[in-house]
Design goal:
This protein is of the alpha+beta class. It is 57% helix and 15% strand. A hairpin with a 2-residue loop joins strand 5 and strand 6.
Length: 257
């Protein structure tokens, strides 16, 4: 009789715990694939298509981890195993968090037009000069596409407008350069009334080119800006967000000055 509790513990089924461990392994694999896709492409370990393939496999692994976690939770409830059940809940929550990243990206892609060149002046957009050669080597064009792109921008991003500041042009130019440096962009050229730079996205390291053009208007300075991706049909709203954020920050900087 004294040995009966030991026999009962030994007889308890181990497969809920094994299912829990398998779901954890799948979750870790999904996290590693998701986190490594961008750096692997940025450091030129693989082509862009292969990196996107890692994202797809990460999604599959996260879905499998969540499904296995649900199965583990049911098994743990039937067999009254608290430990595997608690692990299953954590795995499912983490899998949902991982899946939120590609889901949010997909949602953004569906909500914005498939364009990659945004400007505050669609009739006479600032031209790329210093970065023109670099853009020639990439899929997207150097010149502003206009036409359908401009129509889609007007409909999707009506807030993208020129900024008019009551300040001398040289003061605005200095503020533009300072704001670009604070943003971590690589400045390619600084002229009397224009600055060109390249912004690099953090995860995949995609390069987007930026040009800011200044014009005197009476006692004020008009700021026009253009931001365009070097590759990809759609920027998922990145360039519009960059222009909006930059001009807001520039205005705040000049207001403080």
């Amino acid at each position: 009789m004294a040995h009966q509790p030991i026999i009962e513990r030994a007889a308890r089924p181990r497969w809920p715990r094994r299912l829990a461990w398998l779901s954890v392994i799948l979750l870790l694999a999904a996290a590693l694939l998701l986190a490594g896709a961008g750096p692997a492409y940025r450091m030129e370990f693989m082509a862009l298509g292969d990196a996107f393939g890692l994202l797809r496999y990460a999604t599959y692994a996260a879905v499998a981890a969540a499904a296995l976690g649900l199965l583990t939770l049911v098994a743990a409830a039937v067999k009254r195993r608290f430990g595997p059940g608690f692990t299953a809940v954590l795995v499912m929550a983490a899998a949902v968090a991982l899946l939120y990243v590609p889901w949010q990206h997909w949602q953004r892609a569906q909500a914005v037009p498939a364009i990659h060149d945004i400007t505050t002046d669609m009739d006479n957009p600032p031209a790329f000069e210093a970065v023109a050669d670099a853009r020639e080597e990439t899929p997207n064009e150097v010149g502003y596409p206009g036409g359908r792109t401009a129509e889609q921008q007007r409909a999707a991003y009506p807030e993208i407008q020129p900024l008019v500041i009551e300040a001398p042009m040289d003061t605005v130019l200095a503020a533009v350069q300072a704001e670009m440096q604070d943003a971590g962009w690589q400045i390619a050229d600084v002229g009397p009334a224009r600055i060109e730079a390249t912004a690099t996205t953090r995860w995949f390291g995609f390069k987007d080119d930026v040009v800011v053009r200044l014009r005197e208007e009476d006692a004020a300075t008009r700021v026009d800006m253009r931001s365009a991706s070097r590759m990809g049909a759609s920027d998922v709203g990145t360039n519009a967000a960059r222009i909006h954020t930059f001009l807001e920050a520039l205005k705040a900087r000049l207001d403080e000055a």
